[in-house]
Design goal:
- The protein is of the alpha/beta class and 126 residues long.
- 28% of the residues lie in helices and 25% in strands.
- It is built from 4 helices and 7 strands; from the N terminus they run H-E-E-E-H-E-E-H-H-E-E.
- The strands form 2 sheets. The protein has a 4-stranded mixed beta sheet, sandwiched between helices.
- The longest helix has 19 residues.
- The chain is globular.
- It starts with a helix and ends in a 6-residue tail after the last strand.
- The relative contact order is 0.24.
- Bound molecules: iron/sulfur cluster.
- The site of iron/sulfur cluster (SF4) has 12 residues, from helix 3 and helix 4.
- Iron/sulfur cluster (SF4) binds next to helix 3 and helix 4.
């Protein structure tokens, strides 16, 4: 399924955070989501709640590691250090009990119209 996502005509996902100047900041464990955002599907649709808007890339990473990752760890039932403590324990966090493997920042796309982001005026996900 993860490989098939790379060949999809339309890929629907979210971003972990968006900065005020429009950078999309994402951290993946396996990388299939960020890979498909970057290349593969003809169209990428991103649905992003206002709760994911942050000022800077540093703030985005802090949000992902101290807010998103602990909750995602619980959701997918991986006993990461942050799932136990509620905030990031890097550098004392190693695979297989680590869901932060790729830090990807999308600044732009050379293919006009390929990525469409819908900023939804409510809290969506975490
Ligand atoms: S690096 Fe490890 S402890 Fe930190 S947020 Fe990611 S999974 Fe959690």
């Amino acid at each position: 399924m993860r490989k098939q996502g790379m060949l999809a005509d339309i890929f629907i996902a979210s971003s972990n955070a968006i900065t005020l100047d429009g950078k999309l900041v994402n951290i993946d464990g396996i990388g299939n989501r960020v890979a498909a955002m970057i290349f593969g599907p003809d169209k990428v649709i991103l649905l992003v709640g206002m709760n994911k808007v942050v000022k800077t890339v540093d703030e985005a990473v802090a949000r992902i590691k101290n807010h998103v990752a602990p909750r995602n760890s619980v959701r997918v039932n991986i006993s990461t250090p942050c799932a136990k403590r509620g905030f990031c324990q890097d550098p004392h966090c190693v695979p297989p009990h680590r869901i932060c493997s790729q830090l990807v920042i999308l600044e732009s796309s050379m293919l006009p119209g390929r990525i469409k982001l819908f900023l939804v005026g409510e809290e969506l996900g975490y």
